Amino acid sequence: MIDFSVIWFAIIVFATLMYIVMDGFDLGIGILFPFNKDAVERDMMVNTVAPVWDGNETWLVLGGAGLYGAFPLAYAVIADALAIPLTAMLIGLIFRGVAFEFRFKATEEHRAFWDKSFIAGSLLATFSQGVAVGAMINGFPVKGREFAGSALDWLAPFPLFCGVGLVVAYALLGCTWLIMKTENELHRKMSALATPLVVPRSQIPNCSLRPACSPARRRCMPTRPRTCSCRTLPERLTSPNTMSTTAPVP
Questions:
Q1: Span 100-112, mean pLDDT?
Q2: Do 100 and 190 belong to one domain?
């Protein structure tokens, strides 16, 4: 006998993952707006998602409707427990969508307002989604098939950390999307911005961050995994006539 609950669970998980990937780079572009002040490049960034951004949100509708139809009790508990984050997410998505359409039609003096709305809506929607995911991972107190906790149970360190983490993840998705879709200066900007999102600055080799050590007098000596330090070589090793020698470094 077919277990439809398992099928619907798989559909909901699939829709959620598709939303994270597909709408993640849309929201990521809004998160990246503050890092690029060039008006022409901002238009290019938005134009890359203009044909697909509204369709990407359909996955969120599918996941929510599937949860409501297949698991109404879970839907009721989640809606009660996460009323504030989910409302904030919807407000952010509304602002993001309206700003997306209006910024192209706005006059120059109003363009800045819609750009800020686009940024704020993207950040609010993304952070709220991360908080909701973190709160669901923590779990909800249920008594008598009803939510028995507080409306602020989501206001805990782990859900808030998940919110910040999702903002970083969506920003990385936005960077990779723009790297794939753009070229020249904007492509270089996004490549430079994506690097610290993937590799924390503390994990970047120190020798690449210290131009004070000239290349002729620098050698990376491993000190611990994924790091290195700059050490000055003796003069006899840095001389042009002895650079090819294999004398040991003291």
A1: 84
A2: yes
